[in-house]
Amino acid sequence: MKQKITLKHIARELSVSISTVSKALKNSEEISKDTKDKIQAFAKLYNYKPNNIAISLKNRRTKNIGVIIPDIVHHFFTTVFRGIENYANAKGYNVILCMSDESFDKEVINMELLANGSIDGFIMALSAETQIKNDYNHLKEVAEQGIPLVLFDRITDEIECDKVVINDMEGAYKAVTKFIEDGRKQIALITTEDYYSVSRERAKGYKQALLDHNLPYRENLVLKLPFMDVDELAINEFLDREKIDAVLCVNEIYAIHSMRHVQSKGLSIPKDISFIGFTDGILSKYSTPGLTAVSQHGEKMGAIAAEMLIEKIESEKEEETYTTTVLDTTIVARGSTNN
Amino acid sequence: MKQKITLKHIARELSVSISTVSKALKNSEEISKDTKDKIQAFAKLYNYKPNNIAISLKNRRTKNIGVIIPDIVHHFFTTVFRGIENYANAKGYNVILCMSDESFDKEVINMELLANGSIDGFIMALSAETQIKNDYNHLKEVAEQGIPLVLFDRITDEIECDKVVINDMEGAYKAVTKFIEDGRKQIALITTEDYYSVSRERAKGYKQALLDHNLPYRENLVLKLPFMDVDELAINEFLDREKIDAVLCVNEIYAIHSMRHVQSKGLSIPKDISFIGFTDGILSKYSTPGLTAVSQHGEKMGAIAAEMLIEKIESEKEEETYTTTVLDTTIVARGSTNN
């Protein structure tokens, strides 16, 4: 990432005082036209943004944080948002939320909309389409302008910024290990295509747990759906076709739908088939039986993301360093598994 | 946070008239290039956002809509939001969301934040605290500044603006009538305190349906909880204490919790006791048995709110007239009632 251009940089480069730079950029009558032209040209060349710099000078912070999430209907993202809000509000920040609806274009439009001076920094989970396109120029641009950015859950290695994720691989590994310890042999995975960073990691954990316990990894026991939406037909067909005694699902809705389907076929949960799902949302708690869940600690994730962002916003440091925080998952045992 | 920069500030700082500033920012031919450059540079530097009045002049639309809802975790509000987004996006508008968290202060802060020029109009459901305080000055101010406003679900008669609600009274009336037709005699209501406009209306419908069918209205069969959050103890105690064969709940979570409680006591649903809940969210669909629901048609409500707002934003009329759209409810029958 390019270093943030500050008044101090400009002053140093052009051998003038910070005050001169500041006045020149305000088009002050006190500064000669020649000096102003030089400073303004330099600022333009290095993509200096008055609002961001003003923000970094602490004299014109908006005290607003922009959050962009793929979807408002999935419980996980709203839980993270709640964690962000609680932390940010306690620190005197407001939070503005925009939805990408899993669309690249909407993600870009929303970033532009918020980056126009309404906010001091971003917290985001990438849209599905952004991960498919693998195009992160809109994020790079924001980062180059010196606007602090924290990615959570759906992240990318392409951008240098603070990140917070759960240990998705470990979460899946723990779930599959629990199935194996409970005596399950035909363990299936219902997941999404690999372009979601989280699905890739969970699939790795699923495979590794099988191999570490000397069970074969069989592709026919892995159902990959193109989207987060429940494709009921594809799931039913998969469950009817394969001989399965345990299912790990990468989200709650897949798991709840699957449980209802096998129950409708007369199977008993967990006797005949057991289930674990990621997220630990409201459906997991209220389904019958309750769904054993890999808790992603969404509220904690949100609080950590907000803490990282606010620290960057308020930091006086010129050299930035970035951290990726990895949260451990927890298995919350309920009636859908032997306990 | 620093004071908002207005046309007046700029005019005073640069010793020009407000009209000159206004024209310069619109790039008018009437103003000399030097003056325009100076004003525009100043405005940019101080992150000037055209004020609300400027927006109402229709010459500087942002194509953004601000939505403020009480809570992101309740399925109903997120469903309405989805309806708003779908309609607004199709019309070329972006949507920004803020949460009041049921707090009056947060509602005011978020309105100020968005009314600073980021958006062309508001869609809101009032926070619980605003309805308790009965203080709507922040809404009046926005309305007076000519910013279009649409209220949905949680509304007030104190503000003249477009509104969209469901026929809450009729929804409760229909639900109770269904219970009576199914032969139920001891029909309870679990609701919130009357400061929620929706709860008041639903309690009216509950009472009217009983009276119209010559059943007594008994206060001991009505449980009023102070908040939307589930007070599990109060609900359990109520259900254990009263002789009840049917329960209407004003939200899904009350109903789901109540069903689980009576099931844990060995009662059979709907044989011993039946349930209807408002909202028809994801929990109603996936509970066991499924919850018969009064559908509030959240997505449709959102689409109508967005349509009303965009019409006002794009209207050239000086005299405004306001409409309240009332949507009929539908009973979605599931396993929690005799069908």
From TrEMBL, chains A, B:
CDD domains, alphabetized: HTH_LacI, PBP1_LacI_sugar_binding-like
List the InterPro entries hit by this protein, alphabetically: HTH_LacI, Lambda_DNA-bd_dom_sf, Peripla_BP/Lac1_sug-bd_dom, Peripla_BP_I
The record, for Gene3D superfamilies, names: 3.40.50.2300, lambda repressor-like DNA-binding domains
Q: Where is the HTH lacI-type domain?
A: 5-59
DNA-binding: is it a keyword of this entry? yes
One Gene Ontology molecular-function label: DNA-binding transcription factor activity
Keyword match Transcription regulation: yes
Q: Keywords, A to Z?
A: DNA-binding, Transcription, Transcription regulation
Q: Which domain of life is it from?
A: Bacteria
Name-wise, this protein is Transcriptional regulator, LacI family
Protein species of origin: Arenibacter nanhaiticus
The organism's taxonomic lineage, starting at the top? Bacteria, Pseudomonadati, Bacteroidota, Flavobacteriia, Flavobacteriales
